[in-house]
Specification:
single chain; six-stranded mixed sheet; 37% helix; 11 helices; 2 domains; seven-stranded mixed sheet; 60s Ribosomal Protein L30, Chain: A; 13 strands; Phosphoribosyl-aminoimidazole Synthetase, Chain A, domain 2; 357 residues; alpha+beta
Length: 357
């Protein structure tokens, strides 16, 4: 039995339990479930594909309904956006705690609607209810859909030897922002208000929808971006290894080239998280035709999105390696994300202080 209890299941458990049992075979499934691949892709008509992603609806009332709803909508949309196809539709299931009032639900949904509208997404169906036993933050699930030409989508299976590897925004964006949003008083006392303000400002950067739009306009496949992946659980290291595994290639990554913001480094060091392996919604990992990589980084910068070339894709079947000042070492998937343990400890400590008070 796996010892893991929280976070995404391990690749081994996914392969053993889920991947071998996927219902009926269907020739119109172009891309099926695969660990580390953000979307499934199906053929819906001649020359037309639809990319679909499924995720929990993650809402934290303590962030305020507007912020919480914005984050929930962008989590759901980010995976589908990495297909490179235009975002179109969403189906939303809300299984809410009984204590949410009609007024709170109204504020929550108005903000969720506004976030979807801003991304060009129409909510087409769903389910909304209050149930005993449902608690924040996981209060349902949703499917997000993107659609476009069948020869224009990308997935993490499409990285090619020789491609440049680009990372946007830097490591541990989500881990840092969630700590700042959840424990602002404690972090301000221990790290200073300026650091916490910078960390909290990352909250609205926890989306890869803007850079996916840049990629689509820049050019996909042989025209530029060959693969995209949202670095969520497992962080940048996890995301890199997932792209490599999905494409059956190796990677050579320069550790010093991976951006780590000062506020990220401070929060991660203080909370005991490795920034390179901590959850990082908002960080896009992209592989790019090598002679267009600098132009892609420039296109992102023109939209206010920081990015860096951090390495290259190596041959099929080759290992993934990290190059450090001390030399090379294997780049491996970290397994369980350190964010969950660190966040849980701080939450328990906060609850203990509240009870004692």
């Amino acid at each position: 039995m796996s010892e893991q209890r929280t976070g995404k299941v391990t690749p081994e458990l996914f392969e053993r339990v889920i991947h071998r049992r996927l219902g009926a075979a269907d020739p119109d499934v172009l891309v099926g479930p695969q660990h580390g691949v953000d979307v499934g892709v199906v053929r819906v008509a001649d020359g037309v594909a639809m990319a679909l992603s499924a995720d929990p609806v993650f809402i934290v009332p303590a962030y305020g309904w507007r912020r919480a709803a914005w984050f929930a909508a962008h989590i759901l949309a980010s995976d589908a956006s990495t297909s490179g196809l235009p975002l179109r539709w969403m189906a939303v299931d809300l299984n809410l705690p009984p204590e949410i009032t009609d007024e709170e639900l109204t504020e929550l949904w108005e903000s969720f609607h506004a976030a979807c509208e801003g991304m060009g997404i129409a909510v087409v169906t769903g389910h909304t209810a209050r149930y005993d036993g449902c608690t924040w933050p996981m209060v349902g699930g949703a499917v997000c859909m993107a659609s476009g030409p069948a020869d224009r989508y990308v997935t993490p299976t499409m990285a090619r030897p020789g491609d440049a590897v680009v990372v946007t925004k830097g490591a541990a964006i989500e881990a840092t922002a969630l700590f700042a949003a959840t424990f602002p008083e404690r972090l301000s006392r221990e790290l200073g208000e300026e650091t916490v303000r910078a960390a909290d400002a990352l909250f609205e950067r926890m989306t890869v929808v803007p850079e996916a739009v840049v990629a689509r306009r820049f050019g996909l496949r042989e025209e530029g971006v060959t693969a995209m992946h949202d670095a969520t659980e497992g962080g940048v290291f996890g995301g890199l290894t997932e792209v490599a595994a999905a494409s059956g290639v190796g990677m050579r990554i320069d550790l010093a080239a991976i951006p780590v913001r000062p506020e990220v480094r401070a929060v991660c060091q203080h909370t005991g998280m490795d920034p390179y392996t901590s959850i990082s919604e908002g960080t896009l990992i992209a592989t790019v035709v090598p002679d267009r990589a600098d132009a892609f980084v420039a296109a992102l910068a023109a939209e206010g999105i920081e990015a860096a070339i951090v390495g290259e894709v190596t041959g099929r079947g080759e290992p993934c390696v990290i190059v450090t000042e001390e030399g090379e070492r294997p780049l491996e998937h970290p397994g369980l994300d350190p964010f969950w343990g660190a966040f849980g400890r701080w939450a328990e400590e906060a609850a203990g202080i509240a009870e004692a008070g």
